[in-house]
Every structure is written in C-alpha cells, then in structure tokens.
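Q: Joint fold for the lines below.
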Amino acid sequence: AQTVTQSQPEMSVQEAETVTLSCTYDTSESDYYLFWYKQPPSRQMILVIRQEAYKQQNATENRFSVNFQKAAKSFSLKISDSQLGDAAMYFCAYRSPPGRETSGSRLTFGEGTQLTVNP
Amino acid sequence: SAVISQKPSRDICQRGTSLTIQCQVDSQVTMMFWYRQQPGQSLTLIATANQGSEATYESGFVIDKFPISRPNLTFSTLTVSNMSPEDSSIYLCSVADLLRGNTIYFGEGSWLTVV
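A: Joint structure:
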C-alpha cells in the first residue's frame, strides 16, 4: 500500500518570502499522480497543483511550484511571494492511475503541514 | 473544475440519531467518493459511491453505519447512523474529473458535531 509522509507539522514564513513544504511517499508503482491540496479554516479542500509521474517537468501554477524527484520519491511544494491568504493546512496526496481496481480511486493523504504567514 | 455542493454545511446532532448528507455535482461523473476528517487529522476514505451498484467501503467502514446512495451520475448521499461523539467530523464528498487527468475535487464539507 502507498504511504505519504509530511515531516513538517508546522511551518511559518514571512509575507513576500518563499517557503518549501516537504512530502515523501512510498510506492511500487511507476505511474501515478501527486497532488497538493490547501485547506483553509473554511475546511474546503482546494487543489493547489498536480503532477503526473510520467512527466519529468515540474508542475507550476503561478506562485506555486513543485520539485518532483521520482527516484527519491519526493514531492515538495514551493510557495513564492507568500501572501496572507496562503495560510492554511497543506496536504500532499497520492493517487494510483484509474483502472487499478478501487485503489485507483483512492487518494492517500499525508498528515498535513500547517502554514502560518506572518505579516 | 466540477462544482460540488454539499448539504448541510454544518449541524449539531444528538447522540443515537442519524443524519444524511447530500452531495450534488453540476456535471455527470463516474466516480464519487466520501471522506471523513476527524478533528486535527488528515482525510480518510470511507467509500466509493458507484452509480447503479452498492458502494465500495474501505477497511474499518461498514454499510450499516455509513449507508450510501448513488441514484444517478450527479448525486449521492451519505448517512451517518446511530451517531456517537466519535462521529464528530467533517465529511467531504469528492469526484474524479476525467477531463482533467482524473483530478479529484472536493465539496465544501459537512461539519458534524455529535452531542
């Protein structure tokens, strides 16, 4: 079974600076998807960024980018020019490709990293 | 992305009662999922709701406690039965968007407190 580990329960960053959140995972599969979700106090899960394992190029979405190291099974999230609205719980998640029975449907989450942005 | 609406958004429930959470999607989706997030914890998949067949439950979750309906491709319900304080959680509906690499999107969540 796949596991996802976020080793940083809490992180803080000054407004306008850059912060990196760590995520590692364990899998025997070669094809899969990785995601970062943001959960603000409203509790809604908001997709931040997605990475397909077969793509070598790191995904980027505006101020958010990932460092995907497939061999190391590492998937870190970098937030540039941090804003107060970035303060939230961030979850790293793994998903098998569709078709892998029910496991292909399941998102496996890490424990989360609580990000604080200081003004 | 798909727009997912959940009702209720928040409720306080009496011990021993049951509550049904509704999930409505603005487009037809093959896969709908129900997750639970207990206070201070990460998300755990309860079950996958299949249209036209019984839901597929994850280990530790049973149909008698969490019956699920999926009458069509845009709607599902999750019932939390015979509630106890341990059921106080956020329950989230989610869908897989086949047009966007099977990315999974979430509804706003239903925050239940059992007293």
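Q: Anything notable?
A: The two ends of chain A are 41 Å apart (CA to CA). Chain A has a mean pLDDT of 92.
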